[in-house]
Specification:
120 residues, 0% helix, 11 strands, mainly beta, 7-stranded mixed beta sheet
């Protein structure tokens, strides 16, 4: 288990960009996979992006080509760069760490969430 703290959410216009950051309080961050989920009002939570300990990545179809997940193990940090944002990207975004591979990811720790709102 790890404590996770997200930052970087906010209000942005359609077509704009945001970068979410998540710092994990664990001394073994580098062995974990990490992922970002999101949940919009009235919708189920969905997995947006995953990055494994070996830097393999996987993305939801809805964000491919627009979002990029990365990690910086020296800072125990995972990022989500979001470009060309659309109103349908509006949601609370949650950082996670867990186990598994890029297509079979199992989170075991969750952050508190950060709101992203895309609106003109």
């Amino acid at each position: 288990q790890a404590q996770l703290v997200e930052s970087g959410g906010g209000l942005v216009q359609p077509g704009g960009s945001l970068r979410l950051s998540c710092v994990a309080s664990t001394t073994i961050f580098e062995i974990y996979a990490a992922g970002w989920y999101r949940q919009a009002p009235g919708k189920q939570r969905e997995l947006v992006a995953v990055i494994t300990a070996r830097d393999n990545t996987n993305y939801a179809d809805s964000v491919k080509g627009r979002f990029a997940i990365s990690r910086e193990n020296a800072k125990n940090t995972v990022y989500l760069q979001m470009n060309n944002l659309k109103p349908e990207d509006t949601a609370v975004y949650y950082c996670t760490v867990g186990d598994g591979n890029a297509r079979d990811y199992n989170p075991h720790s969750w952050g508190q969430g950060t709101q992203v709102t895309v609106s003109s």
